[in-house]
């Protein structure tokens, strides 16, 4: 089973999935899979597969109303990636600070 961060990176690795997610974020309301599909030059089935990957990562919530399925963005899940990146940002800040201190001591 994939951990959450792996699912998130997999979900946002594809440009089409990023576009779908972005469309849902800026829509500020639920969009049907049909509405989303109409924005892309691919089959509804192809869009549905991308949405499923986003849903598996927790970036999209799907609700069924009658025969239609509606999607909402859940951007809060991106905080996991932000936390992951902050660790490495701090790591490199520390390393560059150490290098700067070393170079200053040699000057």
UniProtKB/TrEMBL annotation:
Transmembrane segments: none annotated. SUPFAM superfamilies: Winged helix' DNA-binding domain. Pfam families: HTH_20. GO terms for molecular function: DNA-binding transcription factor activity. Residues 1-93 form the HTH arsR-type domain. NCBIfam families: HTH_metalloreg. This is ArsR family transcriptional regulator.
